Amino acid sequence: MNASFKTILMTGAILGVIGVAISVAGCASAPTLPTATSVAAGVTRVDLGDVRVTTLKEGSAQRVLDASFVKNASLEEVRQALAAAGLPGDRVEIPFTVFFVEIGGERVLFDAGNGEFGAATSGKLLESMSKAGIDPASVTAVVISHFHGDHINGLRNKAGELVFKNAKIYVPEVEWNWWMDDARMAAAPEAMKGTFQAARRVFGPIASYVVKFAPDSEVLPGIRAVAAHGHTPGHTAFLVEGKARRLLYWGDTTNIAALFVRHPDWAVMFDMDPEAARQVRRRLAERVLQEDLLLAGYHLPGAAVGTLSRRGSGYEFTPLAP
Fold it and tell me: In 3D, which of 317, 321, 266, 265 has the Cα closest to residue 296?
């Protein structure tokens, strides 16, 4: 065997060993998908090691689809996107899901749902909590992403009573400063005044002890705010530090996944600053992919917690299945 042939064999062997090592390392670093367990209809539990997440269906709302729903795409494009996802093209159904997170001794709700103030097909949070065996009195914290009614109205019932009587209420200070500004409410267009009034109904009686947190600050141990302004002036996402897997709850960063996850540059009619909201969608989606985070969202489908992947120029959300 000549020297050059021996060199070729040795080089091939070395490269083979390196390839195996890379392959093994890649397999070792690939995260294990958390286990999702169906507790009852509309209730799913996900184990993140030292953190447990329970998804609680709050219901849904339907609206007739018209050209105003997506601000920067034609009605035909929107209908084609819905058809591609196997959804009807004449209406949209918007799901609501509240997340209950047990972390570091805290029992935390992310957002509070519509309560008694939404569509007849919503307001089912307490029903879902009962199915999950969660006593509202056991909730120690409610962390609010923003002040739209479907996220805050569930804090207080029509009789004015607090629903989660033992919970501290945490809100983004930017969001508070915007919606609780009387001069801004007076100058607001009529269509926006309802949100200002809802914030006062919900928070007015407890304003002195609502906890306001700064953008990108630690809200509670293991829970960090992530500024996601655009949908509203202080809209906030939250990073949950699970031992087995980290999770990003991105609130209303997207509405219907078939439209705004797959087409993140499209703007839903509810986004107050469409361009800022578009940039947030891209930034948070890329962070989810780069850091291999689990993704949760108030309007995501299925269990509303799962994984994100690339799909063309957009993304695909895949909910965890029990």
Answer: 317
State pTM to two decimals: 0.90
286 in helix, strand or coil? helix
Beta-strand relationship, 141-143 and 106-110:
parallel
How does pLDDT run across 86-117, given as a tens digit for each residue? 999 999 999 999 999 999 999 999 999 999 99
Kindly report the number of other CB atoms within 10 A of residue 196's CB atom: 19
Structural contact between residues 162 and 109, judged by C-beta atoms closer than 8 angstroms: no
Q: Cα torsion for 181, 159, 170, 287, to the nearest 10°?
A: -90
Contacts of 86 (CB under 8 A, 6+ apart): none
Is residue 141 within 8 A of residue 108, CB to CB? The reply is yes
Which residues in the chain belong to E strands, given as ranges?
Answer: 36-40, 43-47, 52-64, 91-103, 106-110, 141-143, 168-172, 211-213, 218-220, 223-227, 236-240, 247-249, 294-296, 305-311, 314-319
- Contacts with 12 (C-beta within 8 Å, 6 or more apart), sequence order: none
Place of tokens 């948070």: 284
What are phi and psi for residue 158, nearest 5 degrees? -65, -25
Binning the chain into helix, strand and coil, the percentages to the nearest 5 are 35, 25, 40
Q: pLDDT by residue (tens digit) across 109-129?
A: 999 999 999 999 999 999 999
Domain residue spans of the chain: 33-319
- Dist. CA 118–CA 114, nearest whole Å: 5
Greatest alpha-carbon pair distance for the chain in Å reads 93
For the stretch 207-257, pLDDT in tens is 999 999 999 999 999 999 999 999 999 999 999 999 989 999 999 999 999
CA 111 distance to own-chain centroid: 10
Fold of 33-319: Metallo-beta-lactamase; Chain A (3.60.15)
